[in-house]
Amino acid sequence: MTTSPVVALAMGILAAIWFAKSGVGTIAPADMKAALSVLVGCAAAILGFLVSTGALLYAVANTALARNMQRTGYFQSLLANLFMAAGSFFLSLVAGAVNLFIPPIPSGLLPGFSHFEIGMVGFVFFNAAAYFMLIPLGHKMWLLLSNLEPENPKSLE
After folding, report:
1. CB-CB contact of 121 with 19 (8 Å)
2. 127 with 45: CB under 8 angstroms?
3. Close Cβ partners of 144 (under 8 Å, ≥ 6 residues apart)
4. d(Cα 140, Cα 95) in Å, to the nearest integer?
5. What is the tens place of the pLDDT at every residue in 29-69?
6. DSSP assignment letter at 153
7. Sign of the torsion formed by the C-alpha atoms of 141, 146, 148 and 154
8. What residue segments make up the domains of the chain, in order of their start?
9. DSSP string spanning 22-67?
10. Is the pLDDT of residue 2 over 70?
11. Rounded-to-integer distance, Cα 60 and Cα 102, Å
12. Which has the closest alpha carbon to 123: 25, 37, 21?
């Protein structure tokens, strides 16, 4: 059982609403920026792992299992999940990096929030959605890698 992108986006929305309602103004902006810099680094690292996952898929694309997956459409679904997760982490990375430079001045758009806090809500949305998009990708990658077998097992000896 895996999650769809719609579920991941819904969970991102719920996380952003929870973050906005939980008293985001009670945390000092300096503390939030320190936590944000760590989370942006994590998003960049996971994005790098997702890029290497694409290289791994290219390496196994010539196996019998991958060819069968291409015939059934499972491989395209796996690639779609990979690109959606990578795109989500990229958006999370961009939102977080931009938010590191936003000053905590009051917003005219949403009274009671600063521009920085609005940016943090956006970052929480993208970050939560990105992590939830890893669930179907991880499940499909596990199925692929756990069922790989060499085409000629005798050549390994």
Report:
1. yes
2. no
3. 60, 65, 66, 69, 78
4. 28
5. 889 899 999 999 999 999 999 999 999 888 888 888 888 88
6. G
7. positive
8. 41-148
9. TTGGGS-HHHHHHHHHHHHHHHHHHHHHHHHHHHHHHHHTTSHHHH
10. no
11. 43
12. 37
Give tens-digit pLDDT for 112-142: 778 888 888 899 999 999 999 999 899 888 9
Residue position matching structure tokens 């991941």: 8
Q: How far is residue 140 CA from its own chain's centroid?
A: 15
What is the C-alpha to C-alpha distance for residues 115 and 70, in angstroms, rounded to an integer? 46
Cβ proximity of 115 and 107 under 8 Å: yes
CB 15 within 8 A of CB 124: yes
pLDDT at residue 89 in the model: 95
pTM (2 decimals)? 0.83
Quote the pLDDT of residue 1.
Answer: 43
Please identify which residue in the block is written with the tokens 């990979």: 82
DSSP-derived 3-state class of residue 128: helix
**Residue-level pLDDT at 150:** 67
Location of structure tokens 């669930």: 135
d(CA 115, CA 97): 14
